[in-house]
Amino acid sequence: MNKIKFIIKLSPEITIKSTPVRKRTVKMLSNNISKTLNSENIDFNLSSNWDNISLDFKNENDYEKILDILKNIFWIHSILETKEFSFETLDDILKIVWDFYKDKLDGLKIFVKAKRNWNHDFSSKDVERIVWWHLLKNSKNASVSLSNADKIISLEIKDKKLYIINQKITGQWWYPIGFSWKVLSLISGWFDSTVSTYMSMKRGLEVDYLFFDLWFKPHEIAVKQISYYLWKNFSKSYKSTFIKIDFQFLVNLLLTNSTPKYRSVLLKRYMLKTTDLINDYLLKNVSFFKDEYQAIVKWDSLAQVSSQTLANLTNIDKACEMLVLRPLVMFDKQDIINITKQIWTYEFCQSIPEYCSVVSLSPTTKSQMEVILQEEKKIDEIFYKEVLKNIEVKKIIDVLDFENSDFEIKITQEIAKDDVIIDIREKEIILKKPLKIDGNTILNIPFFEINSKFESLDKDKNYLLYCEKWVLSKLHYLYLKDKWYNNLAVYRPE
User: Fold this and answer.
1) Which among 94, 112, 281, 378 could bridge 132 via Cys, Cβ 3.0 to 4.6 Å?
2) Does residue 420 share a domain with residue 281?
3) Same domain, yes or no, for 225 and 347?
4) Torsion angle of C-alpha atoms 442, 444, 449, 452, degrees rounded to 10
5) Is the alpha carbon torsion for 461, 462, 468, 472 positive or negative?
6) pLDDT tens digits for range 163-202
7) For position 448, which CATH number holds?
8) Are residues 270 and 348 in the same domain?
9) What predicted TM-score, i.e. pTM, was given to this entire model?
10) Do 32 and 151 reside in the same domain of the chain?
11) Quick one: 336 and 434 in the same domain?
12) In angstroms, rounded to a whole number, what is the distance separating the alpha carbons of residues 249 and 382?
């Protein structure tokens, strides 16, 4: 028997947990892996051990998909891609390793390391010594290196199974989703809110999304897109909810009934006031909502903008009873931007303006509570009457579904002679499944770049947006259409 197998190493932080917590957490991680793989219709088998989880799969074509999923699941320290072999004796191990590496080590500096359990009549050092000796003896001009090896040969032995490690891939570490309860993250789509949401997931929180719609339809589209992306890539084992609340009426109230320098603080206080109403509303009106939120996640970074001074943050937090978490409170702006690059959201975030600035005009850095309360007296009555009148609650899996909406989307199955097709899939997917159409130009522009690059294209051409499931192509059609681009459609082959 000789097949690829993944050995999933657990985050080192598990070593400080008690045995009951460790068992519970490993079970939670296994469930998260299973739910995510099942959502992709992958045939697999998981086996939980004290210090790792092993994963077998039947279809070799699922290799890349499985690896991509595992790399984004929290609590995984590393993923070992291994080949599994059966053996009886030390001589069997020697033969297996030689057959695997023969003709691959000539002229290389090599290092051998072995790890095994205690159920054998030989030690790990015995394995290393005999394998090293045999490989050096039978390879041309091979040599030993303890610190600068060209090839590290890693072996793991468990009972009567030998695992040769082909590669080691770093995982996401941190805590498994569901370890730390349920929260509601305020999401604007910009750098700060995207990273604060991601950081919350890293601590094991089950994250739902709350978006305050201030005035701009493409903003809503972009926020739904980035929320879906975060869920799909980092917390798919949890069935997230997306909540949109129309705050355009509040913007109008603030612009006409409040002192300009207090508007930014007031806006954020009313966001938190709304969160105090959310739990009760959802429990009464949404059938799939079961568990209340334990905290609110906000994106504030101390002193980054005028509303984020200590004085203002203190007064903002007094607006609600729920705990407010700020994962980024001590982060620099560049730190935040760097994380968006690591999680592939930089291009998303870059294209979204900071719409909270719509109410900002010489904002105060040191708000006074008595003044705030006087300002709110002019607004509270209308606010509490109107705030939940226009609320949209969707399962995150449905948030990009435009099939039954009032959006008008031009979809075509036909390609004219001069049409240019824009394939907006990620480059890795295009390489595996290239789009082949004779006679027409095909541009490969990933979805996270299309909004910034479309402006530079020939305006006399007609463009067809393409992706396999049409979700992202429809979304970007709406986004570009709102910018008054009329020379485009969604290409949807039969």
Assistant:
1) 112
2) no
3) yes
4) -30
5) positive
6) 888 888 887 767 767 676 889 999 988 888 899 999 898 8
7) 3.40.250.10
8) yes
9) 0.67
10) no
11) no
12) 9
Q: Which residues are catalytic?
A: 467
Query: For 382-405, what is each residue's pLDDT tens digit?
Result: 999 988 988 999 998 888 765 445
Q: What is the pLDDT of residues 25-51, one digit of tens each?
A: 888 888 888 888 888 888 888 888 777
Strand, coil or helix: 458:
coil
pLDDT digits (tens, 9 = 90+) for 324-356: 999 988 888 888 898 888 888 887 777 665 555
Query: Tokens 């992306």 map to which residue?
Result: 229
Q: What angle do CA 58, 64, 67 make, to 5 degrees?
A: 90
Of the candidates 172, 202, 209, 196, the one whose C-alpha atom is nearest the C-alpha of residue 69 is: 172
Asked if 129 and 94 count as a contact pair (C-beta separation under 8 A), the reply is no
Residue owning tokens 């219709």: 41
**3-state percent breakdown (helix, strand, coil) of the chain, nearest 5:** 40, 20, 35
CB within 8 A of 439, min separation 6: which ones? 417
> Which residues, other chains included, contact 197 with Cβ-Cβ below 8 Å and sequence gap of 6+?
185, 187, 207, 209, 227, 230, 297
Q: 267-301 pLDDT, tens per residue?
A: 999 999 999 899 889 999 888 888 889 899 998 88
* Strands, E assignment, 87-225: 109-116, 143-144, 151-158, 161-173, 182-186, 206-213
Residue that finishes a domain, picked among 29, 63, 85: 85
